[in-house]
Write a structure and sequence with these properties.
Blueprint lengths: L1 E4 L4 H11 L2 E2 L2 E5 L5 E5 L7 E5 L5 H15 L5 E6 L18 H9 L5 E5 L14 E4 L2 H10 L4 E4 L5 H11 L2 E4 L1 E4 L5 E4 L9 E9 L3 H12 L4 E9 L5 H8 L2 E5 L7 E3 L2 H9 L3
The structure holds ribose-5-phosphate.
Length: 285
Amino acid sequence: MKVLGGSASPLLATRLARELDVALGKVDTKRFPDGECYVRIHDDLEREDVILVQSTRNDEELVELLLLQDAIQEFRVRSLITVVPYFGYARQDKLFNKGEAISSRALIQAIQRNTDTVLLCDVHNLMILTYFDIPVENVSGMLQIAQYLKDAGVEMVLSPDEGSVSRARIVGQIIGTSVDYLEKTRIDGETVKITTKMLDVYRKRVAIVDDIIATGGTIVEAAKQLKDQGAKEVIAACTHGLFAQGALEKLEKVVDTIVSSDSIENETSAVSVAPELCKAIKNYQ
Ligand code: R5P
């Protein structure tokens, strides 16, 4: 077995190879002057079981993933598991308005064409798994996030909205703390409104747990409310730290700590999804 990492996920690919105790393959990726992507694999993958790791946070990373799958299949590999730790476009999972694309379905159709199995991490809505025609599994980063928050002495876990409370419950159960949720209304892509709700957070170390932090709007509004109600410390925790549009700077003004997983590699990736991916991959061996 060999693990290959695309340019979006070099750290996670290295950690996964270590967890699985297998070799990490050598991949070159570069951009032509016009921006087109070029990939080359330097290992012989003939009859190998291959694990490809690449998040698809933007269109460039997505195209790189498709090229890597193509390059891997040229070797006539025995099997290919494609790990997409952060699967972009997952939030456009249905028609919200007539005339739109179901973006997650369109990308799933492209990704599943050249692989045997797909592993995803904390997808926004599990419903998108029904768009796959091949074996697919959603692995959760929440177990490792919970361990981090437990070690940090968190005394209460909050979900920013009722719809995501099941994730917060998993974390609260592992830590052994109470769980509550806020009432969020999304105004537009950048603006959210959190309705005032009295919470038992006074003098407590509180964690807000979400699947994605994108613009940070959700967490900023939630954290302000917790601080107004006397929370001693607010930790923002998510699987996917996208941090678009200066989100980190905005967050640092209102929260004490920000933690995310290595599904998107950045300075807050203190937690790894590699152990959970490793367990899932071992089930396919
Ligand atoms: C939405 O339902 C998600 O679970 C996140 O709460 C959302 O994507 C966060 O976005 P932002 O950081 O832009 O508020």
